[in-house]
Amino acid sequence: MAVERPPLLERPEFERQSLGKAATTDVARPLSLAERLANMDPVRKLTVLLAAIVIWELYTRTAEVPALIFPTFVDTIAALWKGLFQYDLATQTWTSLKILFAGYAIGMAIGATLSFIAVSGRFGSDILSTLASMLNPLPAIALLPLALIWFGLGAKSLVFVLLHSIVWPVALNTHTGFMSVSEPLRMVGRNYGLRNVRYVAKVLIPAAFPSILAGLKLGWAFAWRTLIAAELVFGAASEGGGLGWFIFASRNELDIAGAFAGLLVVILIGFVVENVVFRKIEERTLVRWGMQS
Question: Are 170 and 107 in contact (CB under 8 A)?
Fold first, then answer.
């Protein structure tokens, strides 16, 4: 029996005489100087800083704010220059940084240890979650009076307070990163025979490094502001005072421009660490590994 074919559908044909002008764009062209500068991250951030400085200077001059309340940017820079070359601002800044580096290194070691214990089993995870839920909400500066009783006046008390600011962000973010590693990647590591420390170093840490780096950033920020806050009260206990004590002493002497100069140093150090040190780490790890653009 012959099968009838369906009739062919005829499609009307269209013939256009003129297509007109097509919208075209440049496939490749050299960028202008303004476009090249706009694509540079440091230039954009520097522009924001310059805008903030201009607004600061214009506000203090046009609003005629008293110098005892809000000094101009020019007066602040003059006080910063005076503090660096006539007073001990550079020495006090280095004193604060030495305490910060010591506390940060010890805090990272403790936080990493707690994270490794947490990934070792359910009981280790319970230890970290329980301790974090009890101690993490506690303000670090609230431990300073106890630290003074236990360790006396000196750098040890400040380091103890810094540990509380660093340990929990590092440990919790590291543990969160470890827990977010996919199961197929874990199985690959086990199939290669990786166990214990080698398994953590070659599989968990690279895969969880975005969370680990975020914890290091938080730990740095918390530690830096905790140290300045502690030195504002007890900074004279360590080698004649740190950067926080310089700010406090300037305020007592009604040298408000000097106090602003100390605050400016705090801001500049934080800016450099965040946008230079941690940015270089990101470029050599996350960007190179394709985890971040």
Answer: yes
40-44 own/partner pairs: CB under 8 Å, 24+ apart: 42/275
Fold for the domain defined by 66-287 = MetI-like fold (1.10.3720)
Q: How far is 36 from 45, CA to CA, in rounded Å? A: 14
- Count the residues in the chain: 293
Q: Centre a 10 Å sphere on the Cβ of residue 2 and count the other Cβ atoms it contains.
A: 4
The whole-model pTM stands at 0.79
Return the domain boundaries, the chain. 66-287
CA angle at residue 228 from 226 to 229, to 5 degrees?
Answer: 65
By mean pLDDT, which of 81-85, 118-122, 128-132 is the weakest?
118-122
Closest CA to 100 of 271, 222, 260: 222
Contact 158, 233 (CB under 8 A): no
Per-residue pLDDT, 275 = 85
Look up residue 82 and give its two tokens. 């005076």
Least confident interval from 13-17, 161-165, 184-188, 226-230: 13-17
Alpha-carbon gap, residue 91 to 249, rounded angstroms: 15
Q: What is the dihedral of CA 266, 99, 160, 163, to 10 degrees?
A: 70
